[in-house]
Amino acid sequence: MQSTADLFQRDERASAIDELHFATAIYTCEPVVDALLDRVSWPCGTRALVDTSCGDGAFLRRALARLLQRHSELDDAELLARIQGWEIHPFAAEQARCTVAAVLGEFGYAPDRARQIARELVRCGDFLTDGPRAPTFDVVIGNPPYSRMLNVPELLRDEYTRLVPEYARADLLHSFMDRSAKVLRPGGELALVTSDRWLGNQGAARLREEVGRFFRLAHVERLDVNSTFYRPKQRRAGSPPRVHPCAVVLKSAEGVPITAAPIYPGIATAAEAPTGRTLGDVCSIRLAPWLGTAGIFLVDAAVAEGLPREHLVPAIDTDDVRDGQLREPTRFAVATTPHARPPQAVLDHLERTMPRMCARGRRASCAWLPPEPFHGFDLSRPSLLVPRIAKNLRPVHIPAGVLPVNHNLSIVRSGEYSLEQIEECLAGALAADWFQLVAPRLENGYRSITTRLLRQLPIA
């Protein structure tokens, strides 16, 4: 007889699994499944395939059909040794078993026999915690879950943290990729639909390095989010998942090396990117300072009238730009330095407004400095402003003496290139192609632009 504690723990775990499924269950359309299966050497010979998070069985359905078309003579034990699926959510696992049984029925299996095979073929369990620890398979295929580990229910997150190496803990996808690599025998292959975050994010550099110990990049391509997935769970009808999917195939002896460097779909590795001079070679690229809560170090014209003019700098953000042109600045940054006490009018203003400063903007010392001081920011020359979130590279001319703010990017010439030549580089076809391939995707066509990305941008 089960104790109350056992029942409670079981219910708590079931709730955690439901929550995880709610957040991560998106299923893959058949053309994408078939394209990935085409890229692996299976069902050749006696190679074994596994889907580590099979959902409703989309990959298993197509893989099983291929296996039975090629090897119709397999007995039940041989079949189960060649293909396997894992699914943590009981309802989804039952869906996958029904899918497998239906395929077996199409190949002449009696209903009872088909259901029995399906129950053994699809295992209801957590592959990360319950799956094999030794090399067992030759191909891992599927669409593993994508979720930052911080968003994974605490009960499951604690289990994973104990089992998953540190470099694979940032995202559930990282954990599945690491575990998948370790259950493959020599010559193994991974063919997965993944989000693009692990390919380019700096936080996944160690994961890429570890994966590169076992595999080379045989194939990578971006997929259309609107046609890659079907029945995105718990989302509005017709609403695509908030991911940017890629098809990724990793093989031990085929493709280009994988290192900690970012991987850009369309450019196999950073080493194969256009070589020669980059934007970082010909100009200075800096992140514009963040001044904290508005109204304290970043003030409007009315507040500025009560402050000394010599302690005010015109400041601009992206909302000061219309149709690529900079409007007259309407805000001012309160300029201070660490070694000179500002006038009393400035101190009175800061004392009056500082209680409104957000927690991350507060300073433990030298209270008259903003969260990110800008006294060293070069405002003596004109610059180019590049928004940190944009659909394309479209810089805006900023006159000397004007401060860009809020982590937008500021470009100042530092070599033989004029500001106009730098702008021409940013507007060129080479930069546009690079931007489309490399810049991390956000929602609604927007991209994240960083100083690192701009410094790496190739110039003609």
Please characterize this protein's 3D structure.
By secondary structure, this protein is α+β, with helices and mostly antiparallel strands. 35% of the residues lie in helices and 19% in strands. Helix 2 crosses helix 3 (58-70). The protein has 18 helices and 22 strands. Strands 4-3-2-5-6-9-7-10 form an 8-stranded mixed sheet. A hairpin with a 2-residue loop joins strand 14 (321-322) and strand 15 (325-326).
Question: Which structural class is indicated by helix and strand composition?
Answer: alpha+beta
The domain count comes to 2
The parts where pLDDT drops under 50 for at least 5 residues are 268-275
The oligomeric status of these chains comes to: single chain
What is the CATH class designation of the largest domain?
Answer: Alpha Beta
Main beta sheet: strand number and arrangement?
8 strands, mixed
- Within CATH, the superfamily of the largest domain carries the name Vaccinia Virus protein VP39
Say how many strands there are.
Answer: 22
Instruction: Report how far apart the termini are.
Output: 75 Å
Q: Assign the CATH architecture of the largest domain.
A: 3-Layer(aba) Sandwich
Organism: Ramlibacter albus
Pfam families: Eco57I
Keywords: Methyltransferase, S-adenosyl-L-methionine, Transferase
Family: Belongs to the N(4)/N(6)-methyltransferase family.
Highlighted features:
460 residues; alpha+beta; Rossmann fold; Adenine-n6-DNA-methyltransferase TaqI, Chain A, domain 2; 2 domains; 8-stranded mixed β-sheet; 4-stranded antiparallel β-sheet; elongated
